[in-house]
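Hi support team,

I submitted a single chain yesterday and got back a structure, but I'm not sure I'm reading the token output correctly. Could someone confirm the output below corresponds to the sequence I sent? I've pasted both exactly as they appear in my results page.

Thanks,
R.
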Amino acid sequence: MSQASDRVGVDDKTGPGTAARPKLPLTGVPAVPRDQRDRLQGKGWERSSDRAWTTSGDAAGLHVLVADSDEGYAWRTATTLSEPGFEADAWIGNACLAGDARTLTVVYAPRTFTNRADLNERGAFTATVDLRTGRVSKLPVRSSLAYFSPSCGSGSTALVTQEGGDKYDATRILAIDTRTHRVAAPIEVPGELTSAVPTPTGIVAADSGALVKVAQDGTRRVLAPTAGVAYGLTVGRDGSVAYLERSGVTAAQVRVLPQAQVAAGRRTEAPKVVARGPLTGLGLAPSVKGPVNILGDATISGSLPSGLRVVKAGISSRTSVTGALAIQTPQSRTLGLAAGRAGVDTPVAITGHLVFSDEEVVFSAIPSTPETNDGIDPAAGGSGAIPHRTSSRSAAAAGSPTELVESERYCSVPRNDPRNQAMQPKPRQVEWAVDQAVRGVLTTSRPANWKDLGMPAYTPQALFPPHALTGGGNVPAQVFLGILAQESNLWQAARHALPGVTANPIVGNYYGINYYDGNTANDWTINWADADCGYGVSQVTDGMRLAGKERPGETAMPYQHQRAVALDFAANIAAGLRILQDKWNQTRGAGLSVNNGDASKIENWFFAIWAYNSGFYPQSAAGSNDGAWGVGWLNNPANPRYPANRTPFLDVSYADAAHPQDWPYPEKVLGWAGHPVETLEAPNTLVSGYRPAWWNGDLVSGPANRAAVKPPVNQFCDSTNNCIPGKEYKPNAPDVVGERAGPCAHKNAAGQYDLKCWYHAPTTWKADCNYSCGNELLRFEPGYPYQDDATSYSPMCGNGPVTGARIIDDVPDGTPSIRPNCPRSWTNAGTFTLTYPANEQSNYPGKVDTHQIGGGFGGHFWFTHTRTGGPVSVNASWKLNTIHNGPMRVLIALPDHGAQTRQATYVVKTAQGDRRRIVVQPSGGNRWLSIGAFMFNGYPEVQLSSITSDGTGEKDIAFDAVAFLPITGTYKEQSVEAVAQFDEDEDIDTAAPSSWLAGFLSSRQELYDWGLSKSTGIMNAAACSATQTTNCVGAALKNASATWRSQVTAAGTNPTVHPDGTSIGTWIGFAQKYTDRPPTTTRPAWFDDDGRYKIKTSATASYVVDANNKIVDGSEWVEYSNRTGNTHLPEFWRNLISAASADYGLAPPNLTFTTRDLNTHYGQTTTWDPISSGVLPGRAYAFMGKKPTPVDADGIPSATNASCVATLYTAGGSIGYRPFLGAQDGVPADRYNTWVNQLDANPKAPQVLVDAMRDFKNTFLDPGRNPVMDSAFNFAPPIWQELSLNFCADGTIKKVSGRPLLRASHMPDQYFYVNGAAVTIDGTATASPAPVLLGDFQKFSAAPEPNNDFPLKPNPFGPCGAATDRSGNPWDLSAADPTQNANENPSGHFCLDKKLPTDDPWSS
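Hi R., thanks for writing in. Yes, this is the structure output for that exact sequence:
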């Protein structure tokens, strides 16, 4: 072994293709610093609309990241794409941006899909993403993961490709309309095509030796000849097509086919070369609103055609919308860390090249999983709801709705069996086991019943003895570690488990779901016979099916051997190593050797790794394969499915791990051998997965030797396997039609090209391999002691929450904890059941997304992901096995991880009916949480469903133990509610001129004059006719304006003297009609209608009172709730829009928008159409609550002498205009302005109509931050309510320390109820249904003057406090703060005391 200074390991990144750079001036910054933006981005950056995007994957999904020029390219997560039911260590994908500069088309899949040909060729999921809003539309199509799918052009079409592989007889191209998210009928192309791109005049693709134009029937016409198969096809804004082609062995060149030739569709000569460069140093990238960019080390031939430029950025860079920023793929050494769930933030480095200054900035961004997947299209299967889909396939067996361990399975070791859990090893444990195994000494003792798994005693390499290598030697540790990194990310258990935690073993496609046939109709059809059954860290498949259910030619291992493979990382490594050793012996015995054949050298394992992944075809079977034998074509580096200009995997950048589909399997494994993955050893502790292999050499030759681990592209393409470098042959044998054209010239007996260029000859690309080949680094010498297990997330062990509690755990009695030192010391007092709904195929897909974790109470809990509905769901039940008549306290066990939802709705079956408790599951560790006391008169039961109002398929919901504690006493339950209404008799005169409202809203008179003038003007306009074709109105506008005028004149200006239901406040949409007033002292049922109130807030307390009329400690609970009502759009305005459509044929504006927290504040995203509904939902802001506290008569907290339960709750929200104006960067509101401009351009429309609609825009619908130029409703103050209540044992509601029971904002009127009956402001019964507080619009409309806040001038802005009465607000929203925009959604505080802390789970 050479000295350390003479060898190169993972930390040196100065390999070929990475020219030395000076130290970057900006590294690890979240954005371009504001004081450097003029210099780096150019003046005017703050007005630029440029937007950059990229993707970054982890275990949570594929994150779509977005950055805008006007924010210094600060990166944010637009959305995260994933699919339920996958034990994915990381998600990968490709994407392209449509010509609208807004819609991204994405194909995405688990990283391990690249290990399977069928998954790689047609298994990726497809979606479109709106970069402005994050809205996702998931599409019913599967795609190839090849580098050229998807592709976009200058228009609104994207193309995805489905490769035929060896099962289908054609390549399929599918066009997606990115505006409607619709997928056109597939174009089936016989033979082979690559790099299909949409142009304005048709599809252009790379064929064998030519660019071709593809017709809808799949026929092709040659446009121009190419040298081999062109790649990197890029559509310019003018419809031209730039492309790359190889020039000799190591060079590449760029040509451009002009738009006219593309449109003509006729064969021409090859266009001239415009740029040249090295094969691995030249690339192309489009800018949808800018030029086509030639990337890398380009030498220009003559002058560049218009629409092209050279950018000195990495060849795989993407460019921003205008081309101002070139972005390299985000780089991270970690795989499998889901954002925000592993106890560690996982930043990625994004290198950007700023074209203006020709400088680089390395941004640091932390991809996040949004609270919700903004605007996922439910119709497309989003928003967490899996649509019911029909299928012609049937499951092998239907199963049971309550059986978790499916007897009908084919894989041997079941999922979701608490007696079969795998411990997640630390990465150093995996490396230790590999180091011992490759030397044949992995003989650590596993005693009988190791980890309470019930297995007999064994040692790993006694179960799976190693096989001696032909030619002698050992497997280099880093070769096998590279395989484990690629196969499983070094995981033995499911990705949800950190080291030391137990969970289901990681299993490849346990349910046999056919994700990869290109047909989404069967994506949730369980078909056990198709199960893969690859288990654990090395994904051992052979022998892992149940006896009697094996594949043809397979023999099942003994069951306890199967369990060892599935549950013990060391046994799995022993079994996997033996497979690799067999592949070496198989290939070596057939004469396939690499370089000098020394088994100690990393590169020399290329054939064995190749066979490990895709098999070996022996010479003995060559007769049935038309003479072909050896290793197959899929992993041949000459296969054109891999980019010709790829660099050695991971050698230039860890960003390669984000798109592993661009390399054959052996190249990936050898890349991992030299560049270890970084992964978690414990929460918040990232470590290198293992020690890297090393190469001899100095600072120049060392990196070069390491980079040469990748063989030349044509190393395995020669006459021995009928492969001819530089030639192109179309596969046309029936089983490979649709595969890419390439150099494989092998023919079957029928004379058809069949891609059986199977390699079977020795080969050398390192003649001095003894020195230049890679070497093993054995970290743990033979006999090194066993590495201790991790202790992440220790379980909560013990007897339960309190003495006397009746516990129902989530596993049956007698189930041992696999976590150490956590014995069971209780007996279940009832039954726990998980029940699954069936899908249309009568199986239970919710089981696919059910997972077990060795944590929480007793060392075990279940979890799944929340959704809004559908069959991928589960309902849990905890039911006592004895009848109980009387009150009981209910406590729920919550684990310290795997519990993320804030909307876990526990349903308690009580004597009074169902009672719901919404619980915020995540908190500071394992704990028991009381959810109050309840009255029972039967078998007490608690239920919890994975269906929640904010379910997106992303947030975990946990199911652990429940405890019931009997209480002696009398159960009581009381409720208080405040409901606010904007009465039609409200005086809407403002505090003008010191008001945030101006123009025609400044006073009743101004509004009346404006309405009368505009309605009269429109009504009196000339009628359109054959002779009157300008400045005229039709019958619809005549009627609409007349109706409006009659409303205005009837209402007049007096706020109280007017016909009922026709006030000035109602026709402008502020007020509710008199019919919404409560007619009696009983709370009206219509207060449940969001259109008939403005805000409402309630508190319902329950508790148990003992014989001394004292509150029983621990029995108290309060359930708070709040809701913000809808804002009514003026009827006259909607009528005018409809009438203009009828009279002028002008389509109504599309004002549909998507935003969060409409009506309720739980992070839920809503998509809303104001035009069709006539309303804008108000935004509910953050709510603040205190836990219920038993207090004595003096208000002092007491556990033994409490006579009341003290509560405090503050909530409210904003008028619906404000969230609408802030939604999606104001885009929906801008659509109304576009509509007004279209109206103005119509010669028929009279100016008075245009003026009226523009006035409405300026007043209500003009987004922006300028209070003078833009709509005042961008800054509209919120309305709020604060309840401060004592619920007392004698059944009364009392004040807390003399404070008002109800405080509220200046608007609107407040109605007050106790147990559904009207009360006074002091909480006493009343015979009047009238409000207890009247609105004051003048004070509410006041704008604070400088240094003149409350109490000098009551107004709704700024913070409320103990002494501000009805002024201010709990969220400190201010009209004077320019940083607050219409989309503001801030945290809040109590008006009682701004510094008073809020309590979970009673606060948002």
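A quick pointer for reading it: Residues 327 and 858 are 49 Å apart (CA to CA). Let us know if anything else looks off.

Best,
Support desk
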